[in-house]
């Protein structure tokens, strides 16, 4: 901490006495400068303790002299008595008291050099303490950055080192990392964030002074540091170190994420080329799990920006043992439990998804073709999702005479409709849901809100009323086409 006027007065060997503006003794002394000039403003930077014997001062000139010192921003005035003046001119003391400039009386026995030495020792000690604090802070930040803390650890450590709060913002101004209690300040900083293009911007948020500093990364990022008092030199050095470490960490993370995405896309290409065993073995080695087959394959089409946003979101949310995703040409492709992917795509907007029939690992190429065809259909229809089964059914129906198709549908579904009209069950709705879920009892019963045994009884009733075997893929296809005609 810098030496204050009060601390200097407290050094008894100097024998200093306060003669004016005692309330201002908390001012820090930047340096000491002895001069007998009546206007030393051109030689001052501000914050100095000025020493004079008043050779050119008297009762008339003293008031103007004090006001010039105030304009120069000096911390205080030390007036040596016993040489040109036995006592400090009364007008000088009165004016200093009026304008709030502390005046210290320096006795004849105290040489100015003694005051200079005292201040010099304090300045050197302060600079050393600042250097030690800077070095310690840099070491702690570096250990955090190379350890398991990552960018979040660096942000929290920086907040402790500067006794404030810290936010790490991405290119959109969204918070990616935050120290405790820092997030509420993000909204207040959005206008300042928008104005900042590069470098540093100092602003205010509540009772905090906030330094916004851009990171040296290809993707624009900003570090916001809020403190109750302006950062000192050590604090500024520590913040600069954090900026460098975060820039490096985020850039390395960017490269790491990019490498993983290229690897994912390569594995998708391996699956599409029929190398399922090699691809799944690699998935298991890198991500610790493989989605359980049979797989539903989802292909998502859209603009490059929208697809990139989807992949960014999936990187943050999706677990590798439940869902695997990657890029295949102009599509984002996912397999496994893909409902999360489809939901995320619908939230982003501008994306159109196609879902295949369930396929085994070796049937993935066929599933991928189905998903891509369905995605193209969804894009043409401006629909968020099209299932391949629906798409294929619609395509077949377009080749069949509409009257013949309607007659086939009415004939096949008539017993079920008659049964439902008696109020004894919902066979048509249950059959539709069961087929939509590819005969999966648990999923279909959960969607209908009935027990799976109830659903099994209903499907047995369908088979009994129609005289058809629902275990036959051909029969299921006929029922699905009939339901499509009825629903169209």
Q: What layout of secondary structure does this protein have?
A:
Blueprint lengths: L4 H5 L7 E4 L10 E4 L13 E5 L9 H11 L3 E5 L9 H10 L3 E4 L5 H35 L3 H13 L2 E5 L5 E4 L11 H6 L4 E6 L2 E7 L7 E6 L5 H40 L3 H12 L8 E7 L1 H14 L5 E6 L2 E6 L2 H10 L2 E5 L8 H18 L3 E3 H10 L4 H20 L5 H10 L4 H8 L3 H15 L6 H15 L1
Parallel strand pairs: 2-3, 3-4, 4-5, 14-15
Antiparallel strand pairs: 1-5, 6-7, 6-10, 8-9, 9-10, 11-13, 11-14, 12-13
Report on this model:
This protein is α/β, with parallel strands linked by helices. Helix content is 52%, strand content 16%. It has helices at residues 5-9, 62-72, 90-99, 112-146, 150-162, 190-195, 233-272, 276-287, 304-317, 339-348, 364-381, 388-397, 402-421, 427-436, 441-448, 452-466, 473-487, and strands at 17-20, 31-34, 48-52, 76-80, 103-106, 165-169, 175-178, 200-205, 208-214, 222-227, 296-302, 323-328, 331-336, 351-355, 385-387. The protein has a five-stranded mixed β-sheet with strand order 1-5-4-3-2. Strands 7-6-10-9-8 form a five-stranded antiparallel β-sheet, with helices on one face. A five-stranded mixed β-sheet has the order 12-13-11-14-15. Helix 4 packs antiparallel against helix 5 and helix 13 crosses helix 17 (473-487). The longest helix has 40 residues, at 233-272. The relative contact order is 0.05. The model has no long low-confidence stretch (mean pLDDT 86).
């Amino acid at each position: 901490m810098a030496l204050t006027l009060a601390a200097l007065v407290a050094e008894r060997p100097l024998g200093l006495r306060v003669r004016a503006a005692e309330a201002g003794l908390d001012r820090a002394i930047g340096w000491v400068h002895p001069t007998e000039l009546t206007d030393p403003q051109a030689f001052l930077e501000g914050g100095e303790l000025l020493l004079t014997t008043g050779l050119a001062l008297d009762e008339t000139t003293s008031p103007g002299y004090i006001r010039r010192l105030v304009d120069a921003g000096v911390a205080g005035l030390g007036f040596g008595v016993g040489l040109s003046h036995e006592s400090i001119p009364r007008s000088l003391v009165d004016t200093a008291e009026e304008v709030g400039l502390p005046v210290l009386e320096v006795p004849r026995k105290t040489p100015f050099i003694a005051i200079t030495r005292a201040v010099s020792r304090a300045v050197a000690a302060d600079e050393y303490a600042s250097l030690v604090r800077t070095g310690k802070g840099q070491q702690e930040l570096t250990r955090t950055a190379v350890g398991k803390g990552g960018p979040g650890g660096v942000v929290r450590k920086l907040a402790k080192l500067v006794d404030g709060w810290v936010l790490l913002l991405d290119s959109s101004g969204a918070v990616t990392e935050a120290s405790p209690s820092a997030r509420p300040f993000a909204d207040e900083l959005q206008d300042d964030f928008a104005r900042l293009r590069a470098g540093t911007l100092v602003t205010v948020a509540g009772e905090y002074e906030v330094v916004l500093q851009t990171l040296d990364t290809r993707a624009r990022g900003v570090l916001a540091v809020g403190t109750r008092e302006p950062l000192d030199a050590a604090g500024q050095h520590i913040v600069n170190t954090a900026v460098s470490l975060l820039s490096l960490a985020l850039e390395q993370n960017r490269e790491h994420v990019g490498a993983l995405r290229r690897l994912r896309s390569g594995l998708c290409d391996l699956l599409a080329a029929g190398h399922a065993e090699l691809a799944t073995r690699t998935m298991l080695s890198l991500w610790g799990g493989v989605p359980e087959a049979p797989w539903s394959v989802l292909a998502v089409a859209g603009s490059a920006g929208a697809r990139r946003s989807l992949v960014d979101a999936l990187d943050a949310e999706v677990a590798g043992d439940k869902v695997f995703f990657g890029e295949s040409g102009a599509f984002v492709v996912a397999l496994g439990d893909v409902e999360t992917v489809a939901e995320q795509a619908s939230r982003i907007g501008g994306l159109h998804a196609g879902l295949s029939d369930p396929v085994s690992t070796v049937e993935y190429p066929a599933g991928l073709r189905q998903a891509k065809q369905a995605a193209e259909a969804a894009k043409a229809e401006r629909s968020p999702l099209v299932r391949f089964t629906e798409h294929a059914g619609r395509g077949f129906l377009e080749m069949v005479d509409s009257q013949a198709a309607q007659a086939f549908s009415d004939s096949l579904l008539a017993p079920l409709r008659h049964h439902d009209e008696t109020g004894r069950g919902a066979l048509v709705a249950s059959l539709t849901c069961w087929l939509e879920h590819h005969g999966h009892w648990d999923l279909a019963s959960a969607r209908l809100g009935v027990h799976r045994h109830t659903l099994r009884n209903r499907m047995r009733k369908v088979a009994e009323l129609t005289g058809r075997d629902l275990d036959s893929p051909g029969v299921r296809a006929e029922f699905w086409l009939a339901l499509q005609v009825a629903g169209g």
